[in-house]
C-alpha cells in the first residue's frame, strides 16, 4: 500500500519532531504515512488541491480555504481535544476605564497577524456584531508576525498583548489558552488587566482530506491516530508539544464565526487577490 502523504506546516522547529513520532507510531501499526512539510498554509492547501498530499493538518482558516476551493467536498477528519470550544478574550488594562466593546469606539485596538483567525478575523467579526465597523469605528493596530501561519506563530498576538500593557493600544485580543499561559508565566499580571469580552466558542485545527481520497483510507488514518495514548511516554512527548491529551472526531460547526468573518471582510479576495 502506498504511504499516505500528510501535510503539516512548520510553524516552529518542533513540528518535524511531532510528525516523526506520529509517523513511527503509524509504522508500528502497519499503516505507513509520509509527512510532507510546508512553509505556510496556503502552500499546504495548494498541495492538497494538486494531490501532492492526501491529508492536511489544517488551521481553521486553511480548512475554510480547502472547503471553499472544493465546494465543500474536502473530507473532514480528526481534531485535538483542545481544538473544541475555544474563545478569544478582549483584554484591557484595569486603569483604562474601558468596560465594554462599545467603549472602544474611536480607540486603537491591537490584533495579531493579518491572517490569524483567533487574534484578528474572528475578533473583527465580533466587533462588527456589536456595532463597530471595520476601518470606520476604531483604529486597527496589527502585529504581523508569522504571516501565512494563520496565528499558529503567536508572536503577533504576544506583541499586541505587550503593546496593551505598555499603553500603545487601548485593548487587545488573545486566545483563551494564550491568556492562561501568559498569566501563568508572568507575561501578564492578572491584577492589572480586565477581560471585558469573550467571543462565542469556536473550533481550531482539523484534518482535511482531498475529495478523491478513499473514505476508508481516511477513516483508517483517523482510527489509528485515535489510538495514540497520553499515558504512553513516547506519545505524551508528542502530545505535549502538539497541545493535546486525546485525538477526537472532528466537526465543522465550530467554523461558523470564521466563515462569516471571511464573508464580512471578503478576506480571501483581499489577502490572496481572488
Question: Could you please describe the fold and organization of this structure?
Answer:
- This protein is α/β, with parallel strands linked by helices and 274 residues long.
- The protein has two domains: 4-83 and 204-251, Periplasmic binding protein-like II (D-Maltodextrin-Binding Protein, domain 2), CATH 3.40.190.10; 88-198, Periplasmic binding protein-like II (D-Maltodextrin-Binding Protein, domain 2).
- It is built from ten helices and twelve strands.
Largest beta sheet: strand ordering: 2-1-3-11-4
Can you summarize the main beta sheet? 5 strands, mixed
Q: What is the helix fraction of residues, given as a range?
A: 25-40%
Domain count: the total is 2
CATH architecture of the largest domain: 3-Layer(aba) Sandwich
Principal-axis shape equals globular
The named CATH superfamily of the largest domain? Periplasmic binding protein-like II
The proportion of strand residues reads 15-25%
The pLDDT mean sits at 95
Low-confidence stretches: none
Instruction: Kindly report how far apart the N and C termini lie.
Output: 38 Å
The secondary-structure element order is EHEHEHEEEEHEHEHEEHHEHH
Radius of gyration: 19 Å
Number of strands: 12
Task: Describe the structure concisely.
By secondary structure, this protein is of the alpha/beta class. It is 38% helix and 19% strand.
Task: Tell me the layout of helices and strands.
Blueprint: E1 4-9, H1 14-28, E2 33-38, H2 41-50, E3 55-58, H3 60-69, E4 75-76, E5 79-80, E6 88-93, E7 108-111, H4 117-129, E8 139-142, H5 155-165, E9 171-175, H6 176-184, E10 193-198, E11 206-209, H7 215-225, H8 233-242, E12 247-248, H9 256-265, H10 267-272
Parallel strand pairs: 1-2, 1-3, 7-8, 7-9
Antiparallel strand pairs: 3-11, 4-11, 5-12, 6-9, 6-10
Amino acid at each position: 500500500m502506498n504511504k499516505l502523504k500528510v501535510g503539516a506546516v512548520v510553524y516552529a522547529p518542533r513540528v518535524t519532531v511531532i510528525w516523526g513520532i506520529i509517523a513511527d507510531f503509524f509504522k508500528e501499526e502497519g499503516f505507513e504515512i509520509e509527512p510532507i512539510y510546508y512553509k505556510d498554509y496556503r502552500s499546504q492547501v495548494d498541495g492538497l488541491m494538486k494531490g501532492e498530499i492526501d491529508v492536511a493538518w489544517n488551521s481553521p482558516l486553511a480548512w475554510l480555504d480547502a472547503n471553499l476551493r472544493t465546494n465543500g467536498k474536502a473530507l473532514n477528519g480528526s481534531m485535538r481535544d483542545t481544538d473544541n470550544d475555544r474563545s478569544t478574550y478582549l483584554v484591557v488594562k484595569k486603569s483604562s476605564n474601558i468596560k465594554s466593546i462599545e467603549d472602544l469606539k474611536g480607540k486603537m485596538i491591537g490584533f495579531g497577524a493579518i491572517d490569524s483567525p483567533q487574534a484578528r478575523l474572528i475578533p473583527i467579526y465580533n466587533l462588527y456584531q456589536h456595532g463597530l465597523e471595520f476601518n470606520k469605528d476604531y483604529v486597527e493596530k496589527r502585529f504581523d508576525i508569522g504571516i501565512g501561519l494563520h496565528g499558529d506563530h503567536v508572536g503577533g498576538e504576544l506583541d499586541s498583548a505587550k503593546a496593551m500593557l505598555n499603553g500603545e493600544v487601548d485593548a487587545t485580543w488573545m486566545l483563551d489558552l494564550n491568556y492562561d499561559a501568559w498569566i501563568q508565566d508572568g507575561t501578564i499580571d492578572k491584577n492589572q488587566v480586565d477581560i471585558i469580552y469573550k467571543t462565542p466558542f469556536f473550533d481550531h485545527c482539523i484534518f482535511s482530506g482531498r475529495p478523491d481520497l478513499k473514505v476508508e483510507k481516511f477513516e483508517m488514518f483517523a482510527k489509528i491516530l485515535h489510538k495514540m495514548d497520553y499515558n504512553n511516554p513516547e506519545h505524551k512527548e508528542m502530545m505535549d508539544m502538539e497541545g493535546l491529551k486525546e485525538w477526537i472526531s472532528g466537526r465543522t460547526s465550530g467554523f461558523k464565526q470564521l466563515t462569516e468573518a471571511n464573508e464580512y471582510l471578503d478576506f480571501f479576495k483581499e489577502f490572496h487577490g481572488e
